[in-house]
Write a structure and sequence with these properties.
The chain is mostly helical. It contains six helices and no strands. It has one domain. The longest helix has 27 residues. Bound molecules: heme C (HEC).
Length: 155
């Protein structure tokens, strides 16, 4: 009997903890998609848009997809911090508010972090290995960007 009772208390405790961690996660995680804007500029090829969307949008856009484990205790904290910091540094969803200088500043940084392999964050690529930028994707980005710079410098 005693074992049964202990097990019952343990299970109830577990459920309570799980509910609390879900509530905490909901409070911590930034809203997944506050608006449906997608402001990736037209000078990016469709392939480059798709690569950026795949590799960077979870932290650098308003279009975040939270997998189930991001609601787990501790994980929710880590994810929340990355998304908040990521969006603050660079938010592709708000790129249409960026002027030529701003886009150049941002995109120089984008190329740099991809080239140096510092982005996407390694804690993220361990779980999502398919988000690592390939060399050919990187070269395509540079080509798109050079086309854009040329167009704007002749204006
Ligand atoms: C898992 C979340 C995550 C992903 C995915 C991610 N980033 Fe970041 N990124 C961050 C965080 C967090 C910071 C802020 C780092 C800091 O404050 O130290 C950041 C910062 C940056 C910065 C500014 C850093 C600097 O040194 O100027 C750039 C540029 C950037 N990321 C580009 C990218 C690009 C491009 C991709 C996709 C290839 C990407 N990030 C994917 C989380 C992420």
């Amino acid at each position: 009997m005693a074992v049964k009772k202990t097990l019952k208390i343990f299970l109830i405790g577990l459920i309570i903890l799980w509910v609390i961690s879900l509530i905490v996660a909901r409070l911590l995680l930034p809203v997944a998609n506050p608006d449906k804007r997608n402001a990736l500029p037209d000078w990016l090829s469709d392939n480059s848009k798709a690569s950026i969307k795949r590799s960077c949008f979870d932290c650098h856009s308003n279009e975040v997809v939270y997998p189930w484990y991001s609601y787990m205790p501790v994980v929710s904290m880590l994810v929340a911090v990355d998304v908040k910091k990521g969006r603050k540094n660079l938010n592709f969803s708000l790129w249409d508010e960026n002027d030529f200088q701003g886009i150049r500043r941002d995109f120089d940084d984008v190329l740099e972090v991809i080239n140096e392999d510092t982005m996407p964050l390694s804690i993220y690529t361990i779980l999502h290995p398919d988000t690592i930028f390939s060399r050919s994707e990187y070269i395509s980005l540079i080509n798109d960007y050079e086309g854009y710079l040329k167009l704007n410098q002749t204006k």
